[in-house]
Amino acid sequence: MSYGVGVLLLAAVGGYWVLERAATHKGNLKRIGQLLGVAIIIVSLLGVACKVWYAATCPPGSGGKAWRCPFASTPPSPTQPK
User: Fold this and answer.
1) Could you write out the DSSP letters of every residue in the chain?
2) How confident is the chain (82 residues) per 10-residue block, as mean pLDDT?
3) Residues 6+ apart with CB under 8 A from 75
């Protein structure tokens, strides 16, 4: 789990870097850079929250079958056809 969280946190740092680079520009390039940087940060932090939720709610030995991410749709029950 820590490998995925580390990559997501590095992505958040990358989003901050994009924000910093966008601050030096003007006009639409600045606006697009700011939106892109904020979007990267938000998505990566949501991913970290999802992984932490997984670690907190998935019982050991369940193979991940009991886990439901709060940001994902609910998986179909085993009795429903795929």
Assistant:
1) -HHHHHHHHHHHHHHHHHHHHHTTS-HHHHHHHHHHHHHHHHHHHHHHHHHHHHHHHS-TTSTTTT---TTSPPPPPTTS--
2) 79 95 93 95 92 75 56 55 51
3) 68
- pLDDT given for residue 1 in this prediction: 52
CB–CB of 44/8 below 8 Å? yes
Kindly tell me the burial class for residue 15, based on how many C-beta atoms sit within 10 Å of its own C-beta (0-12, 13-18, 19 or more).
buried
Q: How is residue 82 written in tokens? A: 């795929």
How far is 47 from 15, CA to CA, in rounded Å? 14
Which pTM value belongs to this model?
Answer: 0.69
Residue 47: count other Cβ atoms within 10 Å of its Cβ. 19
